[in-house]
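Class, look over these C-alpha cells:
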Amino acid sequence: MDLDPRQYENVAINDNDIHNIVLSYLIHNCYKESVESFIACTGTKQPVDYLEDMDKRKRIFHFALEGNALKAIELTEQLAQDILENNKDLQFDLLSLHFVELVCSRKCTEALEFAQTKLSPFGKEHKYMEKLELPMLQDFMALLAYKEPEKSPMFHLLSLEYRQQVADSLNRAILAHLSLPSYTAMEKLIQQATVVRQCLSQEAGKDGPPPFSLKDFLKS
C-alpha cells in the first residue's frame, strides 16, 4: 500500500519555506549570482552570512573537482585553518586526487615519490589498513602497475564521480567549520522522509508503505 496523494495535495505550504529550501540549495552549491537574483525576485530575507566565503568555497570546490588537489588544499588551509589536520580521511582523499593526476599524466616516478612521502604515512595508522575490505591505499598504489590505469580494476579512482565525491565532502567540511549547515534543506527533507517511511514500513509489516523513492514520489 502507498500513501494516497490526496492526503497531502491540499496541505498548505508557506511560500517562505519553499524559498528557504531553494536558497539553501543555491548557497550550499555556491551559486552566488543565482542567490542574488533569487533574493531580488522573491524578496526573501537575505541571510547575514550568505555571501561569507562563498567565492572561496566555489574556487576550492572546482579545484578539487578538476583534480588540482594541491591548490584546493592550499586555499582550504587559508580559509579553514587546521580543518585537514583534524580530518585525516578528507586529507587522504585530497592527496589521493593529486596522486591520481600524476598517474594519469604518466609521471610514475613523481607519483611514486609523492605516494612514499605523503600517502604512505597513512598506511602506518591502523584504522586506514582496516577501514575498507580492500584498503584504499593499496588500491591507489596498484595503479602504478598498469600502463593504462584507466583500464585497471581501480579505474573508478580516476573518474569524475570520485572527484565529485571528494569535492562534495570538502565543501561540507568547510561549511561545518564555518558553522553553516553542511547539508541542504532539501537533502534533510529527503533523508527525513526516507527514515519515516522505513519506520512506517517496519511497523506495519507487509501492509505498510513501500520504502520512499523520490523518483516514484515525483511521478505520483
